[in-house]
């Protein structure tokens, strides 16, 4: 099995780490914005949990899976990118439920 060049590996690691940071920042932003829902008199608890805690869980899973993939000499870009998409979806679903 042929190994990737060191340049390609460095670019893969750099992009993966960047996406992990973006995923974490997005999760913190959604968490902060979701806490504003607590100011509502009675937010939907399922929507609140999905919108506030879901993005954080998705970001943590994305970072862990990305690190595992990188240590196994595979591309880890997919994991944090998927975490970003899942975070956005969870927050959108949560906000829809809270607003209903």
Automatic annotation (TrEMBL):
The keyword Transmembrane applies. Keywords: Membrane, Transmembrane, Transmembrane helix. The chain crosses the membrane at residues 12-39, 45-70, 77-94. It comes from the Bacteria. This is Uncharacterized protein. It comes from Orlajensenia leifsoniae.
């Amino acid at each position: 099995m042929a190994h990737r060049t060191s340049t390609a590996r460095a670019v893969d690691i750099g992009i993966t780490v960047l996406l992990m940071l973006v995923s974490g920042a997005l999760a913190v932003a959604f968490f902060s914005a979701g806490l504003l829902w607590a100011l509502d008199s009675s937010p939907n608890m399922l929507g609140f949990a999905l919108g506030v805690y879901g993005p954080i869980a998705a970001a943590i899973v994305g970072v862990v899976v990305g690190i595992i993939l990188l240590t196994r000499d595979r591309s880890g870009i997919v994991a944090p990118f998927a975490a970003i998409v899942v975070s956005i979806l969870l927050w959108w679903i949560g906000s829809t439920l809270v607003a209903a």
